[in-house]
Amino acid sequence: MSKRMLMMSVAAGVAMYGSAAMAGDPAAGRAVFMSSCSICHSVQAGQNKIGPSLFGVVGRKTGSEPGYNYSPANKQANLTWDNATLDKYLTSPRAVVPGTKMTYGGLKDDTKRANLIAYLDTLK
Ligand code: HEC
């Protein structure tokens, strides 16, 4: 195989892996949720714990879970929790919602984050 061919197949492999990671694996994401989020968040509709219920979170506006006492920062962030916003937020919550009372440092692993968001997207 020529060096150029080798480079091209490596690039194709990376691109394929990249899109698979972006799509995310909800089953793997559920495990991430159980270990990293479930201590503060329920996935049952209307069940608020330390944090608001995350049922239906994908597509909803910041600070809109009924009966949950949000910080002013989260309440007034005026964002929609779509995949891209969740991706940034879960990498570094304080970077996206400065002043949030969510004391979670962030999930830096891209694959785990994509899996987690794929799982959140099933909660509806
Ligand atoms: C230590 C407790 C804690 C952990 C762990 C935690 N959260 Fe939170 N989360 C909160 C609190 C408290 C809020 C409300 C923040 C506010 O009002 O400022 C929140 C808010 C949120 C919001 C905004 C919801 C809305 O309705 O606007 C999302 C999304 C979220 N958390 C997702 C997650 C995910 C996903 C994880 C796991 C990676 C996680 N959180 C881990 C406590 C936590």
TrEMBL record:
Domain Cytochrome c positions: 24-124
The keyword Electron transport is annotated on this UniProt entry: yes
One Pfam family recorded for the sequence: Cytochrom_C
Gene Ontology molecular function, alphabetical: electron transfer activity; heme binding; metal ion binding
Entry keywords, A to Z: Electron transport, Heme, Iron, Metal-binding, Transport
Stated name of the protein: Cytochrome c2
Organism: mine drainage metagenome
